[in-house]
Design a protein that fits this description.
The chain is an alpha/beta fold and 257 residues long. It is built from eleven helices and eight strands. The protein binds 2-phosphoglycolic acid. 2-phosphoglycolic acid (PGA) binds next to strand 8.
Amino acid sequence: MTRRRRLAAGNWKMNGTSAELAEISAVITAHPAPDCEILICPPATLLERMSRDIGEAPIAVGGQDCHREEAGAHTGDVSAAMLVDAGAAYVILGHSERRQDHGETNDDVRAKARTALATGLRVVICVGETLTEREASNTLDIIGGQLAGSIPDLVTGENLVLAYEPVWAIGTGKVPTTDQIGEVHDFIRLQLEKRLGEGVALSVRILYGGSVKASNAAEIFAVSNVDGALVGGASLKAADFAPIIVALDAAGQRVPG
Ligand code: PGA
């Protein structure tokens, strides 16, 4: 069986100033040598300082978005090369808040991903259905369309991470059942196999995101094809995020190598 390195990713969204950098030091102290990979995506303003503070500790940093163009007249936007320059190894793309707040389409996400990959970033591409879509039994159709439209060619098992984030579970405290999570994650794996072939598809990590916290993490991490989590609110404080890393490490140890 392919061994995928589990990933605990924190998405700080529009939260955090330099005062909050201490939270990362606390995560490092709690997890000096984690089994899983840890990624924090702070606001762009904190990237450089956070990556400098992390130094040699095993935590990667990432951006929350980048522009589809390499550079140019795009006031307020951040390019993939700027993220790399500030120390980022990853970028989150197509988060539902970007899709909703900024009207990002699958086509935008694919174009951004192409630029990010060409710049050497790994991409965390987000997909997920709204409550209306789930209630209309359209979940798998929606996810299938987002996958087909958002993932560019030339992805590999190393540079692509998928995040399944049901829009109705983000920041709401509502979490799908483990059966619902498993159904979507198995479906995503199958779609990746069809598109990329089994070898690549089995190496891509698929994260679950949406109201993950210490109290539900172990149950979610036990679901098939869940390789980690994309965590919003509970990634802001080390006291909340560190136990999620513990749960992910423990889940990894149960998987036969
Ligand atoms: P949440 O956010 O953990 O606060 O629900 C998850 C996300 O949007 O990535």
